[in-house]
Amino acid sequence: MVSSTPADAGPVLLARDVDLVRGSSRLLDSVSLRVEQGEHWALLGPNGAGKSTLLGILGARTHPTRGEVYVLGRRLGRVDVRELRSYLGHVDPRHPLQSPLTLREVVLTGLTGTTGLVPRWAPTAAQETEADRLVALLGVDHRSSDRWPTLSQGERGRALIARALMPAPRLLLLDEPATGLDLAAREQLLTALDVLRREHPTLATVLVTHHLEELPPSTTHAYLLRDGRCLAAGPASSVLTTDLVSDCFGHPVRIVRDDGRWAARAHRIPLAAAGR
User: Fold this and answer.
1) Which domain holds residue 50?
2) Structure pTM?
3) pLDDT tens-place string over residues 129-143
């Protein structure tokens, strides 16, 4: 079950007119976003649009230069961010593991927020049971006792989601979780995300990607970011359109949806025109 945390009422995330400035560069420009519990947002845009930068603010890892950000009802700048992060699940496929832990041990480190096992710390029987449940839910229980270096990139990705869920967060942030995955591993990951969202109906998620093909069918909302600015935000069906996505990526594409999944197709160029 997803745990209760302070400020259960109200939006899970609320950002108002957020700017982030580094030197002479404005990385985010008047960005606003509201995420309610049970919503599943896709944060899309080209490389350099500011997606991971915004996710870092939403995950209380970075503070905005200007604007207001509330995470689980707590305003950044007026809260102990270390405590706040304990209520969040953050999935980064570039997890900096230093020692060859087993998959199950990596999942259990989600309780301590560390990359290795903490000396003289041991999980409770209930925590071990929850780790096994999540490992099975994400479909990697057959590799539970195998060492991290022997796992495929796809198996690691699903294990990191299980790890992020160990503190029972209300919010799960996924930073390009399909990075480096082949076709089969990507589909296994997306299926696991759909199962996870059904099993935890109040959990909110924000998933960063620049590929529409990496969005699970359970995606409810979308946010298009270009040059640090919001181009469109709202229900996925109204945002992931041919015109808006083409504008966001600066290239003409045709958006299609089949069996709940989105895909971008390049506009065909007539052969006569291509040969000129």
Assistant:
1) 1-87+169-241
2) 0.86
3) 999 999 998 889 999
